[in-house]
Amino acid sequence: MTMMDGGMMMEVEAAGRRDERERKIQTGQFGLRHDNRIIRAIWAPATIIVVLLGVAFSEIIVSLVAATVLVAGWAAWTWARYALHRLATEIDISQTHAFVGESLTLSLRLENRKIIPLSALQVRINLPEILEPDNQAFSRLHESEPQEGVVVRSTSMRWYERLTWNFEIPLIARGYYRLARVDLKSGDFFGVYRRERTDEARHTLWVYPEVLALDRLGLPRLRPQGDQRGGQRLFEDPTRLQTIRDYRPGDPLKKVDWKATARRQALQSRVYDPSSDLIAVVALNVSTLPHAWQGFFGDIFERAVSVAASLANGYSEERVPVGLLANCTWPGHDTAIRVPPSRSPGQMTRILEALAMADVFTLVRIERMLSEERLTYGSTLALVTAVLTPGLETALLRLKRHGAQVGLIYVGIDDPPATFAESPVYDIRPALAGLHYERVGEAGPWARTDRLHANKRPPEPTDEVDLPTFVGGDDTMRDEEVTDSIATAQGDPRDTPLVVSAARPAPSREPQSPWARPTERDGS
Description:
The chain is α+β, with helices and mostly antiparallel strands.
């Protein structure tokens, strides 16, 4: 059996377990446990027979005792039947978008809206395994898909009583989560009958990746030139002619206007306007090794995601229209991540949401994605990558021939060249050496989870280099166009029940196998 066959079999088994669990407990429906089924099956006929025999043989005491048991059993059955009836649950979270290192408050409110009290009520709050509340007993369900944990609380409730429980949850891993499911169990005062119910709360939580200052990464602040006065003209738009002047030594021949030269009998040069806007596209290559079958390095992937978020944030702070490309999927969809460039107020939120949902598994090679892109003349492409391949070099050279300016931010293992595809390579590994990952848990059969830490003292910046800042066209998309484009191409990620979380780093330089099953969580 090949590794791929083994991985497919595990996925089929996981899907089967999910289907079986859904068949057993339907959301919002009552379920009857099978504990004490023999007692529940025979007590009523047995007590009726005893009552009849007592009457027949004039054993009044026996008949009274049996009748009392019959009435008590009927009362217990009725109590259990309506135990979870009109028991309302409501889950609320303090925020739906947060950064790694922050925390949120999850509130569970219970209200018994009937006259029947609850002698015993067990509440199980199911959460993604990585969202472990502080100071709470948290049990992990290793057979669940995706992996979950539960907080179990037991209580009793009087008639028309309300209860509220608050849980503080530290956000220690980037990801996109659906939460939370609540399992309720109650019954009669004898413990003979039990009722179960499952309630779903449709809350989504985006935990954004770490956003670092560019100078902390050894990169200077962005200096866009487009509309700013006094800036050097890094790029000119050949479609926008400003004037024609006499030829000056040093003017390239492609700027010579031969028709004007013939009319004036002297060499004339064209002068173009600079483009009105700078357009930047941050591209994230999620591959950490040349081939997908080789596995992946979780720590390198998470650092690449953090660097991509930091670059996009830097461009956004300078009011530069910025977009995002990543060669992985959106949860629940089979298309790569594409956020068209925009300077709308909600653009950075869209980019951070996409990076929160990014997964380590490659959907398409980054060179193919770049070959299919139609970047405008003069656009900036900032590529964050851990691997440099001949195919990637070919794709970048094609973009440069079409007028795009390219800069590579390298986060891989091996030492990179100074230039690649006639573009500068910014090696920021010394700055990233101050960041490490702590193993904290697992969130799925393939996904891993990390926590990003930074040293108290930021690393010394490397030799100052200029980020690629280039002038592009003014055909950026409006906010409405961006929203429609994403909705049309990707669908709404909020409709998916998947949990996507950060990738756990390999404990050594050996890459992680994409087919390996998660190991037991260590005690760190």
